[in-house]
Amino acid sequence: MNRFERVNILLTGAGSGIGRATAVRLVAEGGTVLAVDLSEDGLRRTVEAATAEPGAAGRIVPHVADVSDERAVIDAISAAVGELGGIDVLINVAGIHRTTPIDRLTVSDMQRLFTVNAVGTALFCREALPHLPDDTGVIVNVASSSATHGNPYMSAYSASKGAVLAFSLCLASEVAHRGIRVVPVSPGAVATPLTGADVLPPELDASYYQRIRSPRGVADPEQIAGVLAFAASRDGGYLTGAEVRVDGGSHT
């Protein structure tokens, strides 16, 4: 099923985890993808993974950029328009994670989390919108179930993802007159390098996280990628301005 045949997609955070799985899924379904990430090596591996899929019908173009750098975002949009011929879909996956007790939270922590997670997402939306087609354009922003659930030691991260969620809901209303859909997707626990590298300090109580495990277990990136692909496709054509939670039932 080539749901993304003749569809041009700009995907951020494509160098690993959910972003890589999404790139592989989109290319497999015929999409033409400009894959953006800060890691050149990560993008190389993503391109290898996407093109190694049997029957992959799409195309992938890597583009190294820092999503927190306004000039780099503008250049990435220009690259997408030039390399792909336009932008039909924007999927913002890029983000960072921090587990920090409140007594250790620094201004630098807050600034970095908000700059990458919230500002980077907003910049890509701002710059992509003039290029998205009316009636069929789509923006999918990855938030987090932490945006609306109080997890300890994650106040700054959760706040930054809460900003992504609120921004997405407001933007959906703002661009509704153009027929452009905006869908925030909030994953729960996912096995990715982003979360794996963020080790909980040994002196902190980790029992909370053991108690809130999802009945479905920790998600694989591919499970989240499937939802992102649905939201971005014609199959999700009636979906906009509503959060899609993909947490395996952990907060029900």
TrEMBL record:
One of its GO terms (molecular function) is oxidoreductase activity, acting on the CH-OH group of donors, NAD or NADP as acceptor. InterPro entries: KR_dom, NAD(P)-bd_dom_sf, Sc_DH/Rdtase_CS, SDR_fam. Residues 7-178 form the Ketoreductase domain. The keyword tRNA-binding does not apply. Gene3D superfamilies: NAD(P)-binding Rossmann-like Domain (3.40.50.720). The keyword Oxidoreductase applies. Keywords: Oxidoreductase. Pfam families: adh_short_C2 (PF13561). Belongs to the short-chain dehydrogenases/reductases (SDR) family. This is Ketoreductase domain-containing protein.
